[in-house]
Amino acid sequence: MEEHIHLDIGGMSCIHCQTKIEDALNATKGVIKASVSYKKASADIEYDASRINTKKLIGVIENLDYKVLSTREKSSPDIINSLCLLMTILALFKFYRSQDYLIFWSPEVSRNQG
Fold it and tell me: Which residues have CB under 8 Å from 48's CB, separation 6+?
């Protein structure tokens, strides 16, 4: 099962640090693709959760003497953003309907016009 994770990493100071971590992650069994950025101090990793877990991914980085500061599952924000968008649309629909901006959607109006 493919998973995505974002790791914030402390201790990177140059492109060499980025390459060192990225190469180590990409050489790890179960990692599908790892992208590391020393400018953003982070790593985005796609991995097979049936072959490796988050703890082992963090271990790969920490064995290179870098510190993982935080982790975020990539899919979580997508779900939260989708729910926020849905709630906003529903709230706007209710507001506009209460202001009679959406009366053309009302079954009563359709019956009276027909």
Answer: 1, 2, 3, 30, 31, 32
pLDDT in tens, 51-91: 999 999 999 999 999 999 987 765 445 666 777 888 888 88
**Could you tell me how many helices (H) and strands (E) the chain has, helices first?**
4, 4
Query: What domains, with CATH codes, occur in the chain?
Result: 2-73 (3.30.70.100), 76-113 (no CATH)
Say what the pTM is: 0.63
**Structure tokens given for 58:** 């963090």
Strands 67-73 and 42-48 come out as unpaired
